[in-house]
Amino acid sequence: MPDFLQDIRYGARTLRRAPGFAAVVVAVLALGIGANSAIFSVVNAVLLRPLPYRDPDRLVRVDETDPKGEARGVSPADMLVLAARVPAFESIATSHWQNLTLTGPEGAENVYGGQVSADSFRLLGSQPALGRVFRPDEFAPGAPDSVVLSDRLWRRRFGANPAVIGRTLVMNGKPYTIAGVMPAPFLFDQRFELWTPWKFAGSEASDRMARTTCVARLRPGATPGQARAQTLAVLRDLAPDDVARGWGARVAPVAQLLTARVRGSLLVSLGAVAFVLLIACLNVANLLMARATGRAREISVRAALGAGRLRVVRQMLTESLLLALAGGAAGLLLGAWGARALPALFPERLPVPRLDQTRLDAQVFWFTLALSLLTGIVFGLIPAIQATRGNLIQGLREGTRGSGGGTHSRARGLLVVAETALSLVLLAGAGLMLRSFDRLMKVDPGFQAGAALTLHVPMPSAITDKRQQSAYYERILERLRALPGVNSAGLISPLPLAGVDANGTFAREGHPAPPGERQLVKMRVVSPDYFRAMGIELRQGRVFQPADTADAPAVAVISESMARKHFPGENPIGMRVTGREDGSGPYQTVIGVVKDVKNLEMAGDFDPAIYRDYRQYFFAQFATTIVLRAQAGDPMRLAPAAQREIRALTPDQPVGDIRTMSQVVSENVSQPRFYTLLLGIYAALALVLAATGLYGVLACTVNQRKREIGIRMALGATGGSVFRLVLAQALRLIGAGIAIGLAGSWGLTRLIASQLYRTPATDPLTFAAAAALMIAVGAAATWVPARRAVKVDPAIALRCE
Q: In terms of domains, do 370 and 315 share one?
């Protein structure tokens, strides 16, 4: 211990005598460690921290799967049977979302709510922050309506007033008594801002076609695999034909499914920022080796006075650890800032659960400390070993001459090769993401987004049939069409690319779906002027006309992909289709074919879609959006007047989610854009660090080879030959790094293959561009040391020697 304390005191004095060097090293390390701490704080909050439920590892999501393996939820009827007949389930609950309109003194507002079954809160083991959860009697048909609020809604609408318990909240025109408020970390579904009892009975309790979200708690000792086998056995009894045709079951941990969409991207980000830290460590190791060259005489003197090699290595390693801890402390401050800033940088519509809980906690602190210590060992051990490998007499001689050994130069060169290789891997990854995003942004969504404005206008609860529905929205559309600057106004439910989807089954007249197969299509309900408002081209036939009223024959418009898939080689105009898989009707006559539209994601395929006229089809459960096409200029300028017109017709009507269609498209691609930007920043930082490392090595080499360069020039070497000598050394290092980096990129970029859009993970053009950029940056970093070598005065160099 006394020797260790002595090493610390001596190391601190040594670093105080070189404040500039210490400041540079601490800054480089702080940047790398801080970036890692910030990203880890997000990973910790989203992926590692346990869910805020009792025994969260026992919570599983239960789904029935179709023959393609896609999860389809569980019907209420099947949920009741599974609760009674699956021994692995301790309890089971189900929920489904509602589109609700809140009215009252606080104003009208549209929110997503969840209807939950009786065991939901007990299954999760969650206690309310205020009030209570639902009593069993509140799930009985005819019981008074009650509601539990989320912390978010409680704070936004009621100003976190604890006196809300027992107050009445009016939703869809019905009064609900506020029973409780859930705590902030509560996560039943990120969309839900309140919960109501699901009083399903009668037809709902026996309906096997409806699909809901089903969560179960496993009994102690039960596994998801056992639960799945038992669930499949029950389904085989309930619907043996479906199971024989490929329908199955999935039982998976809730935590795993909750983070499925972001897990890969977050881990790739953590790996990329770890590469940046490793490059920073190699850079610092290079600096330490350059500094060790200047300390060759000191090290040799210590060895001559009896210090063993291990003792000198320990001393130098202690200095490295002091630098690492200082860098770690500074990095912790940067990480704390990053932990607050990163959640704000994530796209608002990117589903990252618990992102708002990102903070610098004990786990992040210990991670940063361990990272700092590991970093100190990584960048300190190699220079320490290299510095003590020399011959004693040679070290004393070199210390007086100011030259470094060839061993040190080779080691520093190898570090530059490693930096170059790691930087190229990040460059290749960023290049692939950029190329993928560029291709994504060039995709035709099927509509003209430029002049379109969208307003979410949910259907009032008082409307109960399609005639009332069409009359209400027709009055709104008439008012909006009359506004100055409006070219056309249409209605759609649900809006493409807005994050809400609606699927339905389909069959042609005389062509029922094959037994056990479900022919799914995108279901869209529109007004006649919708296609014009969205700029969707008509390919064949006609779109809806004013004459297609509720009393007229039912008609439908289909997409091009539906025509190709379900009417191959035929003219679909005049054909009849139905939403029933058995083909039994009622039928709609196909009157037109329109251009394919991206419905759920820009990166997705064009799915078959069928459009129904809103006057002929009641769509109360879906999100309703008004689309206005501006005659000229920014369509957002139409928003205030449109809101006034809608509220003049219905004062309590909430009008929300006001966006241009260009914003809708931009938000839909926000996830790939964000991760492309993040990886690009990492790659740029790595490139700067690699260029800095190359510059440092070459500058040090030129300084050490002044005598050699002086002799060469005295013997007749030209400035150009000396310049080429230095450039050749740089290109050898860069070339070796690029070769290794390309090999590494060939394997590592496959990790981001799932995030690429129509771009192979081994795209040769991207790899070539990354290598070319690496060469260009390396050449730029070489320029100053090479010019310095050309300017060496032979007489002065030889006199100094």
A: yes
pLDDT in tens, 526-554: 999 999 999 999 999 999 999 999 889 99
**Other Cβ atoms closer than 10 A to 541:** 17
The dihedrals phi and psi of 657, each to the nearest 5 degrees, come to 50, 45
Alpha-carbon distances, residue 536 vs 51, 572, 595, 622, 792 (angstroms): 44, 19, 6, 21, 70
Place of tokens 């020039």: 713
CA within 13 Å, CB half, 177: 12
Q: What is the mean pLDDT of residues 745-755?
A: 87
C-alpha 701/C-alpha 623 separation (Å) is 68
Helix (H) or strand (E) holding 660: strand 656-660
Domain for residue 50, yes or no? no
Residues 427 and 549 in one domain: no
DSSP reduced 3-state for 683: helix
Q: Tokens 């032979």 label which residue? A: 794
More confident residue, 799 or 189: 189
Within-domain flag for 734:
yes
Report the candidate in 661, 631, 625 with the shortest Cα–Cα distance to residue 484: 631
Residue type, 678: L
Single out the residue of 764, 777, 758 nearest to residue 433, CA to CA: 758
450 domain-assigned: no
Whether residues 696 and 640 share a domain: the answer is: no
> pLDDT confidence of 400, banded at 50, 70, 90?
very low
Q: How many domains does the chain have?
A: 3
Q: Which is more confidently placed, 593 or 397? A: 593
Q: Residue 324 and residue 447: Cα distance in Å, rounded? A: 55
- 199 shares a domain with 122: yes
The alpha carbon of 223 is separated from its chain's Cα centroid by a whole number of angstroms, namely: 30
DSSP letters for 340-402? HHHHHHS-TTS--TTGGG----HHHHHHHHHHHHHHHHHHHHHHHHHHTSS-HHHHHHHHHHT
User: Are 413 and 324 members of one domain?
Assistant: yes
Q: Which domain holds residue 115?
A: 67-246
Strands (E), 24-144: 59-65, 89-103, 109-116, 130-131
Are 212 and 75 within one domain? Answer: yes
Last residue of a domain, one of 221, 246, 271: 246
Look at the block and give the residue holding tokens 């991670």: 367
**Torsion on CA atoms 681, 686, 691, 693, rounded to nearest 10:** 150
Instruction: Return the SS3 of 493.
Output: strand
Task: Report the pLDDT value the prediction gives residue 691, as an integer from 0 to 100.
Answer: 85
Q: How confident is the model at residue 66 (pLDDT cuts 50, 70, 90)?
A: confident
Q: Specify whether 298 is located in the same domain as 411.
A: yes
Contacts of 636-639 with CB under 8 Å at 24 or more apart are 636/453, 636/660, 637/485, 638/453, 638/483, 638/485, 638/486, 639/453, 639/455
Q: Is residue 293 located within the same domain as residue 377?
A: yes
Give the domain-ending residue among 214, 246, 278. 246
